[in-house]
């Protein structure tokens, strides 16, 4: 019998410097949909606010004893903090202590590759999705050292062409330390193509082949079900399966799955 080909593990960091652009919303919803499509997914929350867990109904008090901060500080192994959310979907939760663990690392050695090394201990996962916090610094360095791909969610209204160029050069600047890293794409979130400002910027972006080739075909519209879902502990595809938000993230996952590669 022919051996089933195994897909290459993708380590996707959701990262941009700006806050409130749907990094967590994207991380949570794609993790859930990819798992529903038979992929084995580990969602790693690297934001001390622990929002990814909250989106699945997991509160900080549930995870204080075992969370990603103890993995970063070297007290626990990644497998010891992982929670099973549903079939194929696992979460390494975060909590406020991560901030402290990162602050302590500032004085230590081998600081930027703690997450990368922790991920090496995990086998048989198709997707590792890392929800990164807003901003920059050592926690972001850990994400960029570990990731093979970066997805940058952006809100058109808040970005200029220069802003898009900066996103690409941020990824380039880490290649020296992590040769595997690439931008898998820019995801336009809370997108409204009817706005004049958006139309204008889209036209400008299309003129730059270097930028435009990285913009995902799928856009995510502003949709209230996406924000409502967060308060219910359910991702949108289960809270409001027929909403435009759910459909958009399902399309986006199809686009992502087309990019999968297999080991020989
Ligand atoms: P980040 O992680 O980048 O800070 P979040 O994912 O937490 O951003 O999203 C910020 C806020 O915007 C949240 O309240 C979220 O529910 C809301 N939100 C995200 N995407 C959408 C969308 N497409 N439509 C409506 N609200 C959204
Ligand atoms: Mg977030």
Q: What are the bound molecules? A: adenosine-5'-diphosphate, magnesium ion
Query: DSSP helix count?
Result: 14
| Spatial strand order of the main sheet | 3-4-2-5-1-6-7-8
State Rg. Answer: 18 Å
Mean pLDDT: 94
From the N-terminal CA to the C-terminal CA, the straight-line distance is: 16 Å
Largest sheet: 8 strands, mixed
Helical content stands at 40-55%
Poorly predicted regions: none
Order of helices and strands: EHEHHHHEEHHEHEHEHHEHHH
General shape: globular
Structural class: alpha/beta
Q: Quick one: how many beta strands? A: 8
Strand fraction: 15-25%
Question: Any key phrases for this structure?
Answer:
264 residues, alpha/beta, 8-stranded mixed beta sheet, 14 helices, binds adenosine-5'-diphosphate, binds magnesium ion
Outline of this structure?
By secondary structure, the chain is of the alpha/beta class. The chain has helices at residues 23-36, 51-55, 60-63, 68-72, 78-81, 97-105, 114-120, 138-146, 161-174, 196-207, 209-212, 224-232, 236-239, 244-258, and strands at residues 10-14, 41-45, 83-86, 89-92, 127-131, 149-154, 182-191, 215-221.
Q: Describe it for me?
A:
- It is a single chain.
- This protein is an alpha/beta fold.
- Helix content is 44%, strand content 17%.
- It has 14 helices and 8 strands.
- An 8-stranded mixed beta sheet has the order 3-4-2-5-1-6-7-8, sandwiched between helices.
- Helix 1 (23-36) packs across helix 14 (244-258) and helix 7 (114-120) runs parallel beside helix 8.
- The two termini are 16 Å apart.
- The model has no long low-confidence stretch (mean pLDDT 94).
- Bound molecules: adenosine-5'-diphosphate and magnesium ion (MG).
- Magnesium ion binds at residues 23-24, 47, 51.
- The site of adenosine-5'-diphosphate (ADP) has 18 residues, from helix 1, strand 7 and helix 12.
């Amino acid at each position: 019998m022919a051996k089933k080909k195994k897909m290459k593990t993708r380590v996707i960091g959701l990262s941009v410097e700006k806050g409130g652009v749907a990094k967590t919303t994207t991380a949570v919803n794609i993790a859930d949909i990819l798992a529903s499509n038979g992929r084995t997914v580990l969602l790693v929350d690297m934001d001390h606010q622990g929002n990814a867990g909250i989106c699945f109904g997991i509160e900080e008090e549930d995870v204080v004893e075992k969370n990603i901060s103890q993995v970063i500080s070297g007290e626990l192994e990644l497998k010891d903090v992982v929670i099973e959310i549903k079939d194929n979907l696992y979460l390494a939760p975060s909590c406020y202590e991560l901030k402290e663990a990162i602050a302590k690392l500032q004085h230590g050695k081998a600081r930027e590759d703690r997450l990368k090394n922790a991920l090496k201990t995990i086998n048989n996962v198709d997707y590792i999705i890392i929800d990164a916090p807003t901003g920059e610094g050592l926690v972001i360095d850990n994400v960029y050292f570990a990731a093979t791909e970066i997805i940058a969610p952006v809100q058109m209204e808040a970005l200029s062409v220069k802003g898009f160029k900066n996103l690409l050069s941020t990824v380039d600047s880490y290649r020296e330390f992590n040769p595997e890293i690439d931008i898998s794409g820019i995801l336009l979130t809370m997108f409204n193509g009817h706005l004049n400002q958006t139309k204008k910027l889209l036209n400008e972006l299309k003129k730059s082949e270097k930028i435009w080739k990285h913009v995902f075909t799928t856009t995510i519209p502003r949709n209230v079900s996406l924000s409502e879902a967060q308060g219910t502990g359910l991702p949108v595809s289960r809270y409001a399966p027929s909403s435009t938000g759910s459909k958009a993230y399902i399309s986006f996952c199809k686009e992502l799955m087309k990019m999968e590669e297999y080991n020989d």
